[in-house]
Design a protein that fits this description.
The chain is an all-alpha fold. The protein is built from 13 helices and no strands. The protein has one domain. It is a multi-pass membrane protein.
Length: about 280
């Protein structure tokens, strides 16, 4: 009976019944530690996550800061920083997808499936370890932003809340990377599609330009892009120049963030775990 209970728990991705929460945490820390050891041998991963945001901040936010005028006024360099910070979250999708796909192709998933550990522990370990890389990348981008002239103009709690939103978005994007790995599977295919997330999504949002200045066909996409909602909330929390909009997402970015990120996380987690259960079988 105990064996059947354990098997059912493992198949659903839940912790083993005898060990409960302690067993689940032990499994999670062990696999996360393994992942961190791999990342320690690849320090360039942090620079890879930070590279696109740094290029955007320098090429757009610094070189063109005097050439672009915001409809609501304000310093363009400070306006761009939130977009660069969000790009850190988007840049985490590809590396996570590739690492999970390589584990699938290399047979590591089969070895994990033969062990008495919960299915979810392996995927959570990937996301927790890669979240640390994202945090380090965010530190690099924030330091560069300060050098380039970005400054927050609110209290410390509001500033931390803004960065908390970036961290939340990063973690959801990591699960999107896991979903890509579990659905696409092929590393070459992942490398073709994931760069579009880092490049296209920010430009079809309020990251670099106000949606009000975009063509009428593109404007609704930019306004309803959940990335725009995160960026708008961060700019408000940091006291930076913001894009003006009378649309529902522009007036209620918190609602858009709560709904879209919750739905996206639930979808990515559910589908990824279901596919992980059957991978290699």
């Amino acid at each position: 009976m105990t064996t059947l209970t354990n098997a059912a728990a493992l198949d659903t991705g839940l912790p083993n019944a005898p060990g409960g929460l302690r067993s689940a945490l032990t499994e999670l820390f062990a696999i996360t530690g393994r992942r961190l050891l791999h990342l320690r041998r690849a320090p360039g991963r942090v620079l890879g996550v930070a590279m696109s945001p740094l290029v955007s901040m320098v090429m757009v936010g610094y070189l063109f800061r005097d050439a672009i005028t915001l409809p609501a006024g304000g310093d363009y360099g400070e306006y761009v920083f939130a977009g660069g910070a969000v790009q850190v979250a988007l840049a985490c999708v590809g590396p996570t997808a590739v690492s999970v796909a390589m584990d699938l192709q290399g047979g590591l998933v089969d070895r994990f499936r033969s062990l008495p550990i919960s299915r979810s522990a392996v995927l959570f370990a990937h996301t927790f370890a890669d979240l640390l890389v994202g945090l380090l990348g965010l530190v690099v981008v924030t330091g560069a932003g300060l050098v380039l002239g970005w400054r927050p103009h609110t209290d410390a709690l509001s500033v931390l809340a803004g960065f908390g939103l970036i961290v939340l978005l990063t973690y959801v994007m990591l699960w999107l990377g896991v979903l890509f790995a579990m659905t696409l599977g092929n590393v070459e295919t992942i490398n073709v599609w994931t760069p579009f997330i880092v490049i296209v999504l920010p430009f079809v949002s309020s990251a670099f330009l106000s949606p009000a200045s975009m063509p009428s066909l593109v404007r609704p996409l930019a306004e309803w892009n959940p990335i725009s909602a995160v960026i708008a909330s961060c700019r408000d929390l940091w006291g930076n120049p913001a894009a003006t909009s009378d649309s529902f997402p522009g007036l209620h970015p918190g609602v858009v963030i709560a709904v879209t990120l919750s739905v996206l996380f639930a979808l990515c987690f559910t589908v990824s775990l279901r596919r992980y259960r059957t991978a290699g079988s």
